[in-house]
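Run log, item B.
One chain of 748 residues. Sequence copied directly from the ordering sheet:
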Amino acid sequence: MHHKLFILPFLAISSLAAWPVAHSETAPGNMVAVASVPLQMSMLTPASDSNAALGNEADVAGEERASHVDASGTIQRNGQSAEASLAMPASDAELLKEDVSQADVSQADSDLSQAELEKLRKRFVQAEKAAKKGQKSRFFRLSSQLEDYPLYPYLQYQWLSRHLSDSKRINAFLAVYGDTRYGILLKRKRLSYLGKKRQWQAYQRDFIEWGYENTTNSSLQCYYRRAQYNTAKGDAALRDAALAGARELWVVGHSQPKVCDPLFRVLKKSDYFTTELVWQRFDAAMRNNKTRLAGYIKKDLPATERKTADFWLKLHRNPGKYLPELLKQSQGQPQSEHAGQMFADAVKRYAGRDVYQAIDVWDNNRELFNISRQDRNRVERRLAMKLAYKGDVDAYDRLGALELSDHRSQTLRIRLALQEQNWQRVIEAIGALDEKERNSEKWQYWLARAWQETGRPVQADEILSELSLKRDFYGYLAAEMLDRPYQLAHEPLDVSARDIQAVRDREAFRMAYEFKMLDRERDAKLQWWHALKQLDRSEVPAAAMLAQQWGWDEIAIFTIAKVKYWDDVELRFPRAYAEQIYEKAAENDLDPVILFGLIRRESAFNNDAHSPVGARGLMQLMPKTARQVARELNQRWRGSNSLYDPEKNLTYGAYYYQKLLTQFNGNYALALAAYNAGPSRVKQWLPDETMPADIWIETIPFRETREYVTTVLVYSMIYRQLLDSSSQLTLNELTPKILPLQEVAAAF
């Protein structure tokens, strides 16, 4: 139940007691949903777990409160009041009085009919338009009839966000709706407004009261420090706090918003601004490859030190040309204070152009410079990683010698050993992992493979037997090796209808539902993720089931991922668009399970999905690719937005995948890699000699593509078990040996 609040007029209207019942889940492909959901999904879907190789991975989210307005115009909420002088102009009062008798609001504790709900929705749209047009009288007349409508807070936000000077009404709204999504948005807008208007006292008060001290929003932080400085007067402690905060905001490796400029001008006139501070920011900008910013920062250096900064910039832009000059300067002459940093930076840059030359320069000259331990470790890691990406066998030892190895360098070392099929090194590199990582399904599978290849079949079979019980890529590979069936391990959520209804009845979820009924999918899903944050962990499964009931398959998937429950396979692997998928599979001589697996990975069945780079729809097609497919099918290209049409998207996507499958001699794994990374890259990744598919997949250079291939393969096998189909595809059939380039090149 919403707390009754009016921006100008107050009127007691009957409440609406009832409302209509209507492990790492990788975010779909490289997609972000605009009218819906995320690759690293967009703002509409939470970030997902990175382990896309798994089939059980993280899908990488009634009691009425007393509230009334008393005769004095004070909002009462659970015994607490928020003073608000919200007097209504006579003209508005007359309009309101005239319309009260026409209000289609049901009596307390009565159910609303669908017709009554439609009237409220229509009235909401009219009020929203009035707010946007600044039609005050019409807005207040309409909104007064919607006080118990779930989107009433949103409606008030629409008005108040256009009248940010009205502190009394804003505070009254926030006293009731401050924790809603629109209360949070209004706070940010109000703070920005106060900062722009230089109302420093009010800004400080609200910034602190609303808990923004730790915000990462640089604009709001700069306004806060400006507010401190401008209100300090004789308060030295407050002035020092402002300048100390300004220093932290300034010394970063990127540009700051223009609202920070007045603060930085004050900082530069203070004792807090030193040459050392300027060099710190210059170095931060160079590490961030922001050479234009570094060029701007150097102007704050003393004239005697700008020459060093100029040379550093030249060295950064062209290390091959200027490194000999730096080395010459370092011999027999006092070094610049920053020579070590310059040398380390230049070598890292050089490694991107010629890693072998960079290694030679580094190994032969690093002792000439005073280089910090941190910079030494950064350079060593950069050189080792670049060497590894070249596939050089020396990278294995160089990675192993790193003083500060991490997950990425350690696992890359294993992949280098796999690429060589040096099984003793595979065992050694896996042994260097921490216990948790070493015991993961992926590395246990490769340990078993290594033991097979080194004559220890008993130990290998023991691991494979345990792995074969898992519902993931490596578990299914193990099952194939032992000739055992794949495990589905479906365990539905234990959620009652009452549990689902309890979530549905929450105000925040009612708002999401109403946005959905108004075809505001983007707003609905943004509201959903805000509402989800308010639930206890135990309530999230019910929310996932609710999303499924609302037809939001992808939202259900990512919601249940919030609590890392992977075993409700029916929930996590929907079968939307089944009839069309079967039809397109038949037209293109494809097994439908492949298309189901592709769609599940690409968009999680969200037909409105799109990626930051422009891929769209169920199968995340790029418009350029789809246009070419339309031409090959002799169909008229109807523009990028046509890819949001499931029929069109499936037609083009199925055709394109079959085209890739043909191009790569019927190898499903290669075709999947090409679907994600492009056929040209996959051609470059083909081996010189025939290679087992599991090794080739594990050593794909791009992590996203590597995880993409394993994910679609295991999803396809899961769908094979879920669908009532005659598919007999197995992982062995989907992953035949990878042929060398010369045997595949003819297809190009």
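Observations after the first pass:
- The first helix runs from residue 90 to 100.
- DSSP finds 40 helices and five strands in the chain.
Flagged for discussion on Thursday.
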